[in-house]
Fold each of these.
Amino acid sequence: MKRQWNWRLWLGFLLVFAGAAGYMAIFVWHPITRDFPWVSLLMFAGGIILLVIGLQHAFREPQLYRGKIFGPILALLSVGVIGMFSNGLFYKGHQMPPSKSAPQVAQKAPDFTLPDQDGKLVSLSQLVSGPKAKGAVLIFYRGYW
């Protein structure tokens, strides 16, 4: 009996690899897939499912399916790709260098003047003192631009 090609192993590995490479090449350019890599994670899940099914076929029915050697190798490579992707995106991507000039918590903010929604110049001191003092909420966002 001729053994069949175990396509699930190879398709699972290619799906995992495409999930990681696709994020860097395509998904990073669109905010819906860049902010949280849900497409890549779905591709990883589908690839892992195909790899598990392929490994089951290879080890339960070795007389019918190929893959007892390449199956574990492709599975380990896939786990490595997913691990490096997750480490780079979820851990290393959030390790921002410290800012020496950023205000600290509970530190008094320096006075500044900026235009409001109508284009009038408003200073911080006007917002927190005076007859119509309303207060101010300052939100600082540090990005990589």
Amino acid sequence: MIVVEVAALLLLTVAMAVSLAHALEFPGRRRLDRATYVAVQTAGYPGAAVSSLAEAAAVFAVLALLVSTPIGSPAFWWVSASMAGLFGMNVSYWLMARPANKVWLNPQALNRATAAEREAGGPWGRAPAGFDFRRLRDRWEWSHVVRAGLALLSLASLTAAVALGPTH
């Protein structure tokens, strides 16, 4: 089980690092104009697959530790807290980040401009109808602040569980 513990810690660290990096970028990214923000936003998606895979694998590794840890032991409660943090990360992704990602990754939607946006001109007139740039940007950015907090909670809890032992 030590291999599973180390794997879970490493995988969770990768997932936490990406969420934390997003959260630390929050203040600077909110100052970007629309065109720059969208360019920066879509540039990072190819690397997101690595983080997604690490997070999914961390869920399975932590789950394996949870089912193998004696129920009621101090380590069990720490592993449970770690699993709850991972669950929360996933919920916040699907409810907050994913809807925004669907807009950022939809070139057809981003290339359609409403009449008002065409008239307004400006650096970025390619938003879909009803698109509120600031609201969508803030939703995406705050989702990663939430995810970073949950990831830190999850990693700290898993670290405590492994330090306490036995998780097997």
Amino acid sequence: MAKGSGYEGKLLIEEFKRGMSRAIRRKLMKVEKSLTNIEQWYKCATNLDRHWRESKREKERLKGRKKTSP
């Protein structure tokens, strides 16, 4: 989608940030190493999203386990 968007460089990064969740965007803005290109933004955003989804699944799994415990 990025290739067909007509955006590149900083403008592409701005559009990418605009389309992501506020929570992930905030976390990405706080990373220790500055993200300078779209590939870095993709990689970091994907990792954060994956970790968030895994955490959510784990929370639900543990929540279900507590309900069935005596």
